[in-house]
Amino acid sequence: MLADFLEYDFLRHTFLTGLLIGIIAPLLGTFIVVRRLSLIADALSHVTLAGIAFGLFMDKKFALGIAPLYSGMGFSVLGSIFIEKLRDVYKAYQELAIPIILSGGVGLSVIFIALADGFNTDLFNYLFGSVSAVSETDFYSILGIAAVIMLGIGLFYKELVTLSFDEEHAVVSGIHAKRIHLLFIIMTALVIAASIRVVGVLLVSALMTLPVAASMRIARGFKQMILFSIVFGETAVIIGLIAGYYFSIPPGGTIVMVSIAILLVAIGFKRLSMPLKMRKGR
């Protein structure tokens, strides 16, 4: 079934991009879930949509040739910076930053989509993913982003883990919390922008959270949770791409449904593995 993905260049680029996304999205998603910041992915995905619509508008009206992938990436990074700034403004109510940015992203998306004369095939592919939309240039851009993300996680793994589980201890230990927070949220923005070609901007947050939710049910430690999340994410992406190609449907929806199926299996497995007395007590 993978023969076509290996034979044709455009499918090979999509498949390899999917494999990269299946690694970096759950990898970063593990830290997002542990830090109880799952809605950040939704907020930044809507800001990314605004950037994509802006790129389509500028190309249609002024023929500037701005690639929607890069305009979406720029908006996403700016949105991540604004979230951090707003978290400083509302120190007692930091969660307010997320709905503020999400609302702004939705508002800008509606405006730029209308200015770009509404929905078209390109925008639909960005919303829900496509098995044929990843160009060679896109692939190398996403490869670069994946390398940056994995390098960042590798270099600051201890700091990110400490901040995720005990921020006060991290600050007392001398960790520059604000810098790490900013780095983390920018990496999140880059992952979301990189994932839109395959998963779709409206569904990318699911790939960052659902595999993690499944792995949390069966993992026995944080590193094991990361490993299981990546395995589940890769499984969902591969099945989603194959189904998208052979059934001519956007892969994003299938990726999400496979992720939900994995989550249900993990929940069922956890429940069945519990001793009978504990199950009765629950």
TrEMBL record:
It is found in: Cell membrane; Membrane. It comes from the Bacteria. The chain crosses the membrane at residues 15-34, 39-57, 63-84, 96-119, 139-158, 179-196, 202-219, 226-247, 253-272. SUPFAM superfamilies: ABC transporter involved in vitamin B12 uptake, BtuC (SSF81345). Coiled coil: none annotated. It is a multi-pass membrane protein. The keyword Membrane applies. Keywords: Membrane, Transmembrane, Transmembrane helix, Transport. GO terms for biological process: response to zinc ion; transmembrane transport. Gene3D superfamilies: ABC transporter involved in vitamin B12 uptake, BtuC. One of its GO terms (cellular component) is ATP-binding cassette (ABC) transporter complex. Belongs to the ABC-3 integral membrane protein family. PANTHER family: ABC-TRANSPORTER METAL-BINDING PROTEIN, METAL ABC TRANSPORTER PERMEASE. This is Metal ABC transporter permease.
